[in-house]
Amino acid sequence: MSDIENRRPGASAQSDTVKLVYLLNFASFIVGITALIGVVIAYLKRGDADALAASHYTFQIRTFWMSVLYVAIGTITSFLLIGFLILFAWLIWAIIRNVKGFIAIGEGRAVDDVNTWLW
User: Whole-model pTM?
Assistant: First the structure.
């Protein structure tokens, strides 16, 4: 049987919602509020999700809160100029995390380590 035939009903809908949250995270680089919408969706869907989707929701929630921390530190220290480096590093970090997660869900894989601070 193919992978599509082996999937449970609703698995596609769950991965679509996971992808939506990743897309909202990508959009947040231009329109910041979409990250908040994405994290709310992740919190609401995580409890009913299968293990695959739950790993992605947890990863997305942690990415959101770590982003809040990094952006706050970068903003506060921007008057020292080091903050701009912190914000740039955060941007690269956030892009890598979201790209890796989006690719993983597209391939039907769980996130390797949801608790990592890296990617």
Answer: 0.84
